[in-house]
Protein backbone atom coordinates (compact mmCIF):
# COMPACT_ATOMS: atom_id res chain seq x y z
CA UNK A 1 0.00 0.00 0.00
CA UNK A 2 1.43 3.34 -1.05
CA UNK A 3 2.25 5.82 1.72
CA UNK A 4 0.28 9.05 1.78
CA UNK A 5 2.10 12.24 0.86
CA UNK A 6 1.87 13.75 4.36
CA UNK A 7 3.32 10.57 5.90
CA UNK A 8 6.29 10.73 3.52
CA UNK A 9 6.90 14.37 4.47
CA UNK A 10 6.55 13.54 8.16
CA UNK A 11 9.06 10.68 7.94
CA UNK A 12 11.58 12.77 6.02
CA UNK A 13 11.43 15.64 8.51
CA UNK A 14 11.42 13.29 11.52
CA UNK A 15 14.51 11.53 10.16
CA UNK A 16 16.32 14.86 9.76
CA UNK A 17 15.48 15.78 13.35
CA UNK A 18 16.58 12.38 14.69
CA UNK A 19 19.94 12.39 12.89
CA UNK A 20 20.73 15.99 13.83
CA UNK A 21 20.40 17.58 10.38
CA UNK A 22 17.72 19.80 11.92
CA UNK A 23 19.03 21.09 15.24
CA UNK A 24 16.96 21.56 18.42
CA UNK A 25 15.36 25.01 18.79
CA UNK A 26 15.73 25.84 15.08
CA UNK A 27 12.66 27.11 13.27
CA UNK A 28 11.06 25.02 10.54
CA UNK A 29 10.37 26.63 7.16
CA UNK A 30 6.94 28.25 6.96
CA UNK A 31 3.91 26.32 5.68
CA UNK A 32 4.12 28.26 2.41
CA UNK A 33 7.79 27.34 1.97
CA UNK A 34 7.05 23.68 2.68
CA UNK A 35 4.13 23.72 0.23
CA UNK A 36 6.50 24.98 -2.46
CA UNK A 37 9.32 22.59 -1.54
CA UNK A 38 7.19 19.46 -1.54
CA UNK A 39 4.85 20.59 -4.31
CA UNK A 40 1.74 19.72 -2.35
CA UNK A 41 -1.23 21.33 -0.65
CA UNK A 42 -1.26 23.35 2.57
CA UNK A 43 -3.58 20.75 4.12
CA UNK A 44 -1.01 18.00 3.47
CA UNK A 45 1.73 20.08 5.09
CA UNK A 46 -0.46 20.78 8.12
CA UNK A 47 -1.15 17.05 8.53
CA UNK A 48 2.59 16.32 8.45
CA UNK A 49 3.32 19.10 10.97
CA UNK A 50 0.53 17.94 13.28
CA UNK A 51 1.99 14.45 13.25
CA UNK A 52 5.44 15.83 14.07
CA UNK A 53 3.94 17.81 16.95
CA UNK A 54 1.97 14.82 18.29
CA UNK A 55 5.09 12.65 18.30
CA UNK A 56 7.26 15.19 20.08
CA UNK A 57 9.48 16.34 17.21
CA UNK A 58 8.32 19.96 17.01
CA UNK A 59 6.58 22.57 19.13
CA UNK A 60 4.15 25.01 17.53
CA UNK A 61 4.33 28.48 19.08
CA UNK A 62 1.42 30.74 18.20
CA UNK A 63 2.47 33.65 16.03
CA UNK A 64 6.06 32.41 15.75
CA UNK A 65 5.95 29.13 13.84
CA UNK A 66 7.16 25.58 14.49
CA UNK A 67 10.41 24.80 16.29
CA UNK A 68 12.45 21.60 16.50
CA UNK A 69 12.44 19.94 19.92
CA UNK A 70 15.35 18.08 21.45
CA UNK A 71 14.45 14.43 20.88
CA UNK A 72 16.98 13.50 23.54
CA UNK A 73 14.64 14.73 26.25
CA UNK A 74 14.91 13.40 29.76
CA UNK A 75 12.68 10.44 30.62
CA UNK A 76 10.68 11.22 33.74
CA UNK A 77 8.90 8.17 35.22
CA UNK A 78 5.37 9.07 36.28
CA UNK A 79 4.98 6.16 38.67
CA UNK A 80 8.45 6.34 40.21
CA UNK A 81 9.70 8.44 43.10
CA UNK A 82 13.04 9.74 41.89
CA UNK A 83 14.98 12.88 42.71
CA UNK A 84 16.29 15.37 40.18
CA UNK A 85 19.83 14.45 41.23
CA UNK A 86 19.19 10.80 40.32
CA UNK A 87 17.85 11.76 36.88
CA UNK A 88 20.58 14.32 36.24
CA UNK A 89 23.46 12.01 37.16
CA UNK A 90 22.23 9.39 34.66
CA UNK A 91 22.51 11.91 31.80
CA UNK A 92 26.16 12.74 32.43
CA UNK A 93 25.37 16.40 31.71
CA UNK A 94 26.47 19.28 33.97
CA UNK A 95 23.71 20.25 36.42
CA UNK A 96 23.12 22.32 39.52
CA UNK A 97 20.36 23.42 41.89
CA UNK A 98 19.69 27.12 42.52
CA UNK A 99 17.92 27.88 45.81
CA UNK A 100 15.62 30.93 45.85
CA UNK A 101 13.63 30.34 49.05
CA UNK A 102 14.53 28.30 52.11
CA UNK A 103 12.67 28.98 55.35
CA UNK A 104 10.40 27.66 58.07
CA UNK A 105 6.91 29.16 57.90
CA UNK A 106 3.35 28.56 59.09
CA UNK A 107 1.34 26.61 56.54
CA UNK A 108 -0.91 28.99 54.61
CA UNK A 109 -4.45 28.05 53.58
CA UNK A 110 -3.39 26.32 50.35
CA UNK A 111 -0.63 24.28 52.00
CA UNK A 112 -2.91 23.39 54.92
CA UNK A 113 -5.31 21.93 52.38
CA UNK A 114 -2.61 20.09 50.44
CA UNK A 115 -1.00 18.58 53.56
CA UNK A 116 -4.17 18.16 55.59
CA UNK A 117 -2.92 20.21 58.55
CA UNK A 118 -3.90 23.26 60.57
CA UNK A 119 -2.29 26.70 60.35
CA UNK A 120 -0.33 26.12 63.54
CA UNK A 121 1.88 23.56 61.75
CA UNK A 122 5.40 24.61 60.74
CA UNK A 123 6.58 23.68 57.26
CA UNK A 124 9.87 23.94 55.45
CA UNK A 125 9.30 25.99 52.32
CA UNK A 126 11.94 25.38 49.65
CA UNK A 127 11.88 26.93 46.16
CA UNK A 128 14.57 25.73 43.77
CA UNK A 129 15.24 25.79 40.05
CA UNK A 130 17.08 22.88 38.43
CA UNK A 131 19.64 23.74 35.81
CA UNK A 132 20.86 21.32 33.14
CA UNK A 133 23.46 22.26 30.52
CA UNK A 134 23.18 25.90 31.58
CA UNK A 135 19.38 26.12 31.29
CA UNK A 136 16.91 26.29 34.17
CA UNK A 137 14.36 23.66 33.15
CA UNK A 138 12.51 22.74 36.39
CA UNK A 139 11.09 24.92 39.15
CA UNK A 140 10.43 22.93 42.34
CA UNK A 141 8.29 24.28 45.16
CA UNK A 142 8.62 21.90 48.13
CA UNK A 143 6.78 21.91 51.44
CA UNK A 144 7.85 19.48 54.20
CA UNK A 145 6.12 19.15 57.56
CA UNK A 146 8.70 20.13 60.15
CA UNK A 147 7.50 17.52 62.62
CA UNK A 148 8.86 14.87 60.21
CA UNK A 149 11.86 16.89 58.99
CA UNK A 150 13.14 18.80 62.04
CA UNK A 151 16.37 20.00 60.42
CA UNK A 152 17.47 21.17 56.97
CA UNK A 153 20.39 23.26 55.70
CA UNK A 154 21.03 25.14 52.48
CA UNK A 155 23.74 22.62 51.58
CA UNK A 156 21.19 19.82 51.84
CA UNK A 157 18.59 21.56 49.67
CA UNK A 158 21.23 22.37 47.06
CA UNK A 159 21.99 18.68 46.82
CA UNK A 160 19.38 15.95 47.32
CA UNK A 161 16.83 16.32 50.10
CA UNK A 162 15.67 12.72 49.59
CA UNK A 163 19.19 11.43 50.01
CA UNK A 164 19.41 13.25 53.35
CA UNK A 165 15.94 12.15 54.51
CA UNK A 166 16.59 8.49 53.78
CA UNK A 167 20.27 8.19 54.65
CA UNK A 168 20.60 10.58 57.61
CA UNK A 169 17.10 10.78 59.08
CA UNK A 170 16.18 7.19 58.27
CA UNK A 171 12.75 8.12 56.86
CA UNK A 172 11.04 5.45 54.78
CA UNK A 173 9.55 7.29 51.79
CA UNK A 174 6.95 4.94 50.40
CA UNK A 175 4.55 6.28 47.76
CA UNK A 176 3.08 9.39 46.18
CA UNK A 177 -0.14 10.57 44.59
CA UNK A 178 0.59 12.64 41.48
CA UNK A 179 -1.48 15.10 39.50
CA UNK A 180 -0.20 16.25 36.09
CA UNK A 181 -1.44 19.24 34.12
CA UNK A 182 -0.27 21.64 31.42
CA UNK A 183 -0.57 25.25 32.58
CA UNK A 184 0.32 28.74 31.45
CA UNK A 185 3.50 30.07 33.12
CA UNK A 186 3.20 32.01 36.35
CA UNK A 187 5.29 35.05 37.28
CA UNK A 188 7.63 32.73 39.20
CA UNK A 189 7.99 30.46 36.15
CA UNK A 190 8.99 33.44 34.02
CA UNK A 191 11.43 34.66 36.69
CA UNK A 192 13.06 31.34 37.61
CA UNK A 193 12.86 29.25 34.40
CA UNK A 194 14.49 29.76 31.02
CA UNK A 195 11.24 29.34 29.07
CA UNK A 196 12.72 30.21 25.66
CA UNK A 197 9.36 31.34 24.33
CA UNK A 198 7.33 28.31 25.43
CA UNK A 199 3.92 29.41 26.62
CA UNK A 200 3.10 26.36 28.71
CA UNK A 201 4.73 24.33 31.48
CA UNK A 202 4.06 20.77 32.61
CA UNK A 203 3.08 20.83 36.28
CA UNK A 204 3.44 17.72 38.45
CA UNK A 205 1.88 17.96 41.92
CA UNK A 206 3.22 15.34 44.32
CA UNK A 207 1.66 14.29 47.61
CA UNK A 208 4.36 12.13 49.21
CA UNK A 209 3.75 9.60 51.99
CA UNK A 210 5.94 7.70 54.43
CA UNK A 211 5.80 3.97 55.02
CA UNK A 212 3.15 4.40 57.73
CA UNK A 213 0.97 6.34 55.21
CA UNK A 214 1.72 9.72 56.83
CA UNK A 215 1.56 12.58 54.31
CA UNK A 216 4.73 14.58 54.97
CA UNK A 217 5.51 16.45 51.73
CA UNK A 218 3.71 18.41 49.03
CA UNK A 219 5.70 19.39 45.96
CA UNK A 220 4.82 21.33 42.83
CA UNK A 221 7.35 20.66 40.05
CA UNK A 222 7.04 22.91 37.02
CA UNK A 223 8.83 21.59 33.92
CA UNK A 224 9.76 23.34 30.69
CA UNK A 225 7.60 21.78 28.02
CA UNK A 226 10.28 20.71 25.57
CA UNK A 227 12.74 19.07 27.95
CA UNK A 228 10.89 16.09 29.38
CA UNK A 229 9.12 12.97 28.25
CA UNK A 230 6.82 11.56 30.93
CA UNK A 231 6.74 7.79 30.73
CA UNK A 232 4.63 5.10 32.33
CA UNK A 233 4.31 1.32 32.12
CA UNK A 234 0.68 0.21 32.05
CA UNK A 235 -0.73 -3.28 32.39
CA UNK A 236 -4.27 -4.15 31.35
CA UNK A 237 -6.32 -5.72 34.14
CA UNK A 238 -8.37 -8.81 33.26
TrEMBL record:
SMART domains: HTH_GNTR, UTRA. PROSITE patterns: HTH_GNTR. Keywords: DNA-binding, Transcription, Transcription regulation. InterPro entries: Bact_HTH_transcr_reg (IPR050679), Chorismate_lyase_/UTRA_dom_sf (IPR028978), TreR (IPR012770), Tscrpt_reg_HTH_GntR (IPR000524), UTRA (IPR011663), WH-like_DNA-bd_sf (IPR036388), WH_DNA-bd_sf (IPR036390). It comes from the Bacteria. SUPFAM superfamilies: Chorismate lyase-like, Winged helix' DNA-binding domain. Residues 3-71 form the HTH gntR-type domain. The keyword DNA-binding applies. PANTHER family: HTH-TYPE TRANSCRIPTIONAL REGULATOR TRER, MANNOSYL-D-GLYCERATE TRANSPORT/METABOLISM SYSTEM REPRESSOR MNGR-RELATED. This is Trehalose operon repressor. It comes from Ectobacillus antri. The gene is treR.
Amino acid sequence: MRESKYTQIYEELASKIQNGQMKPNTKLPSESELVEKYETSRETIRKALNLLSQNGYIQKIKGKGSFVLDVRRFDFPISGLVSFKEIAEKTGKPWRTIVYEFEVAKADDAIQQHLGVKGTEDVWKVTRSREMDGERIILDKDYFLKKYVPHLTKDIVQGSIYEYLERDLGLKISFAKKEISVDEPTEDDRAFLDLNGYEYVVVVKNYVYLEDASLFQYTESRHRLDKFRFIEFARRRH
